[in-house]
Amino acid sequence: MSKPIVLRLGEVFYADKAWKQLESIATVIVDDSKNRQEFLENLQGKYKDVQYITRTFGSANQTGLFDEELIKHLPDSVIAVCHNGAGYDQVDPHALAERKIQLSNVPELVDDSTADTHVFLLLGALRNFSDGHHRLLRGEWPASPRAAGTPVAHDPKGKTVGIVGLGGIGRNVLKKLKPFGFERFVYHNRNKLNEELEGGAEYVSFDELLATSDIISINVPLNKHTKHMFNADVFAKVKKGAVLVNTARGGVIDETALIQALKDGTLRSAGLDVLENEPNVNLELVSLPNVLALPHMGTHSVETIQAMEEFVVENVENVIKTGKVISLVPEQKELF
């Protein structure tokens, strides 16, 4: 009896051992398509018997998005797509469901590393650390002896943090922020959570969160409902001089409106790990002195990358053995 075939899209950095072990029960093919058109042709050609596909965020550079067009080209043999990431906005779960193809992601394992990054950006933006760093590099110290002329910033004491999206990462952010002395935590989800999951945060409406929060912490997935969730109309409702932090997805924010809000003082500063058109970033945005930005480093650690890569293999192994992935995405949970 022949082994099931797994097609691997994207680089693997730290899970070679796990993939080698998988080869005892499956035939692994590493994609060598140079572009989307070649990949679509290969799906009808040398990949026509593939049953399981794994993909990384970076693999989109070769295949493009796993959108409705691409999914229509998938062979009838495909049973599951296993995505390496908590966010899966590059993949259309509904189009896969129509083809009876399962989609898994990597939840929870990213929570710690992403929350660490979020806290770093939040504190850095609150304290104007990016501005000070750039002044230092420009040689403005000691000409301006007090902190190289960096505007005096603020401490956590007495501040309200508003968490938009109190899921796994949002709750981890909440837990890690508590020791810093913030006065109050509020949150907004589609629905109020039970008291145990709230972790001491108070449920409020979205408008109340905007109006009362000194720091707005964004932790929502990117989908058709959250695209440009933070736009000019929303920024008009925020507390004057609030700090905005985003480690979720760049597309949640309308960057044109964000630039304006940062320039006119509506927002005092921002901490960003994600950008709307990354890696083709808006240099005007990231060059602003009141923006602390990173090139999507939320899970950029050996330990987290390895854990994520190995969990993708676990998903593949589980669906081969049981017919179901471990971490089916929420949109499909009533279908499989």
Q: Mind sketching the topology for me?
A:
Elements: E1 5-8, H1 16-22, E2 27-30, H2 36-44, E3 52-56, H3 60-63, H4 68-73, E4 80-84, H5 93-98, E5 102-104, H6 111-126, H7 129-137, E6 160-164, H8 168-177, E7 184-188, H9 195-198, E8 202-203, H10 206-212, E9 215-218, H11 232-235, E10 242-246, H12 255-263, E11 267-272, H13 283-286, E12 291-293, H14 302-322
Parallel strand pairs: 1-2, 1-3, 3-4, 4-5, 6-7, 6-9, 7-8, 9-10, 10-11, 11-12
Helix pairs in contact: 6-8
Protein name: Glyoxylate reductase
InterPro entries: D-isomer_2-hydroxyacid_DH, D-isomer_2_OHA_DH_cat_dom, D-isomer_DH_CS, D-isomer_DH_CS1, D-isomer_DH_NAD-bd, NAD(P)-bd_dom_sf
Pfam family, one: 2-Hacid_dh_C
Describe the structure.
- InterPro entries: D-isomer_2-hydroxyacid_DH, D-isomer_2_OHA_DH_cat_dom, D-isomer_DH_CS, D-isomer_DH_CS1, D-isomer_DH_NAD-bd, NAD(P)-bd_dom_sf.
- Belongs to the D-isomer specific 2-hydroxyacid dehydrogenase family.
- GO terms for molecular function: glyoxylate reductase (NADPH) activity; hydroxypyruvate reductase [NAD(P)H] activity; NAD binding.
- Helix content is about 35%, strand content about 15%.
- It has about 325 residues and is α/β, with parallel strands linked by helices.
- It has 2 domains: about 140 residues, Rossmann fold (3-Layer(aba) Sandwich); about 180 residues, Rossmann fold (3-Layer(aba) Sandwich).
- The strands form 2 sheets. Strands 8-7-6-9-10-11-12 form a 7-stranded parallel beta sheet, with helices on both faces.
- Helix 6 packs across helix 8.
